[in-house]
UniProtKB/TrEMBL annotation:
Transmembrane regions listed in the UniProt entry: 84-106
GO-annotated cellular components: membrane
Annotated keywords: Coiled coil, Membrane, Receptor, Transmembrane, Transmembrane helix
GO biological process, alphabetically ordered: vesicle-mediated transport
PROSITE patterns (UniProt xref): V_SNARE
Superkingdom field: Eukaryota
InterPro entries: Synaptobrevin-like (IPR001388), Synaptobrevin/VAMP (IPR016444), V_SNARE_CC (IPR042855)
Start and end residues of each stretch annotated as Disordered: 1-24
Pfam families for the chain: Synaptobrevin (PF00957)
Gene name as annotated: SNC2
SUPFAM superfamilies referenced in this protein's UniProt entry, alphabetically: SNARE fusion complex
Record-given protein name: Vesicle membrane receptor protein (V-SNARE)
Domain V-SNARE coiled-coil homology span(s) in chain numbering: 20-80
Length: 110
């Protein structure tokens, strides 16, 4: 039995073994670069996710403040609308009194 490891693609000639070793070495270097790039991209992705989480938290806070402000404005507008309606109703009542009372008094005198 031989001390060499099993090679599914045996070398064709003596010079071919060094070329094969260089090819394996090059493939290993490419794999390492790919893994380094993947690690770098994963790290950058984590940083981007942290940024997105921070922005999301800020937007949630701003949405709460907007909701409170919108409710305050809605209540103010409701009161303003009620005041306007009351003024119109009082104006109509006064107008009716001004028209009806003199006609009733005039009708009793004649």
């Amino acid at each position: 039995m031989s001390d060499r490891l099993y090679d599914p693609h045996p070398a064709q000639g003596a010079g071919n073994s060094s070329t094969r070793a260089e090819a394996v070495d090059e493939e290993l270097k490419r794999a390492m670069r790919t893994m380094e790039d993947n690690i770098k991209l994963t790290s950058e992705r984590g940083t981007r996710l942290d940024d997105i989480q921070t922005k999301t938290d800020n937007l949630a806070g701003q949405a709460g403040q907007f909701r409170m402000g919108a409710n305050r404005v809605r209540k103010q507008m409701w009161w303003k609308d009620m005041k306007m309606r009351m003024c119109i109703i009082i104006g109509i009542i006064v107008l009716l009194i001004v028209i009806i009372v003199p006609s009733v008094i005039y009708g009793k005198n004649h």
